[in-house]
Every structure is written in C-alpha cells, then in structure tokens.
Amino acid sequence: MIKFGASTLSWISSWSPEKGLYAIQKTAENGFDILEMSLPASLEFDAKTVKQQLADYGIEGRLTMILPQEAHLPFYPEKATRLLKGALDKVAELGGNFLGGVLHSAIGVFTREPRTEAEWDLLKTVFADVASYAKDREITLALEPINRYESYVLTSAAEVVTLAQELGMDNLGLMLDTFHMNIEENSFFTSVTKANHHLKYLHMTESDRGMLGEGNVHWDDLFKGLAEIKYSGPLVLENFSSHLTELIGPTSLWRPSPYDPETLAVGSLNFMKQKAAQWGLI
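Above: the chain's sequence. Below: its structure in token form.
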C-alpha cells in the first residue's frame, strides 16, 4: 500500500536531537506516514532514541545518505564501503529495512570526463559487497541517480537498473527523484515502466522545488507509470522553502519561496494523495 512521507528538510535545515524531535512531531501532526532522515557523514545519529520517538508519534522512519567528498566512491572506494556499511548498521539500529540516496558519489565532484569502465567496475565491486552486507540484515538499498550538474556517476534510471541487473542482487534497486528526472529522463512514464520492480522509492518534488503541481513535472505521466507497474512503495516529499533561511545556500533557493514550510508540505501532500487516488494507487 502506498505511504506518504516527508523529508526532514520540510521542517528543519539540519539534524540535531531537538530539531529531529520537532520534525517527527510536525510529520505526524500533518498527516504523513513516514519521515525521511538523511544520515550525516559522521554517522552521529542516535538511532535507538529516534526509533522510540517515531513509535511514540506513530510514524515510520526511513534513512538516506549522500556520500561526502572524502568518500566519493570512484576515488575512495574503501572509504565509501566503510561509510555505507556504517549507515546500514544505523538502519538496523532503527529497526528499518531501507537505505537510499546518493550512495554512489559525492555531489559536485567531477573529473570533467564521462564515467569510465574502470569506475563502472568499481561501482559493481563496492555494491556487490555492500548489497550483500545489507541482505544479511534484510535491508534494501536504493541508489538515486542525480542530474548532470551534480554528478557524472549515475544520472539516469536506466543506469541504476543496469547495475542492479548485472549484479543480480534482489535487494539493490532504484530511487527516483522527480526533480532530477525532469532534467535527465526523456519520459516519466517510460522511465518508471522500464524500471518496474527495481523501483523502490520516489522523491516527489517539483521542477522548481516548490509546490507540487505548480511547475513543469509531468505528474500524470509519472502516476500513469506507477499505476502500470502497480507501484506500492513510498512517495516522499522533498521540496524546500526559503523561509528556512539555512536552506537557501545548500539548495540554491535564490528567489524567495511563496510558501512557508508547513503550507508547502501540506499542499504537496494533498496533491500527492489526489493524484494517487486519481490513478488508482490508493
């Protein structure tokens, strides 16, 4: 059954125990099922406490991660492997079964050349190891392709699906983000239907990171594809408001947002639910 989530960035700019509890409270208060939390590179995250807080408020937690520059996988495969396994340990402590995100590269690190065959082989070596570690803990990994201005390593749904197929690991899948899809994919519908069962998780965000339905994302094509493959995974909101001033630089919010965080989150949740109902997903 489809569940609806929000990123912590809907409520807070960075994680701390106090801010994290606030994000949990706001997520539950506004009718979401899931709070997505991005692990820091330090892995300083009290999973046991957060697990109890999530239970207290009746919502689920999902963990994601973005590799830091010092663990950019093609440059530092051993560091990336250690960090990813540490993140999986945090998922296990949380009682979770999922780790997604930009697990393949650091944002903004480039060689000024396309990904090489040697780098592809490194991806396969690292994720064969990490996916096996995850499988032992009954955890699914989902790799998020991101746009060409942020990475060169994995930028399309097809690349992640190919990696999963070549490795033959059933717990290694795809995490899509509609912001990046709007730049890199030729078709929302085809990207989803070709991914099929490899698609494990979706970031829902508008072309300008604002209110869902007010930008250029082809939402009906996306939901038509999700209906076609009978998708039942999470739909997780990832849009940002400049009213959280600490987000302006990291998320490039150079123009003022018309919505405060709560209005943006609730309006976008209502849009997701309306589209899911329209296409028979709920």
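Residues 3-278 form a domain with the TIM Barrel fold (CATH 3.20.20.150).
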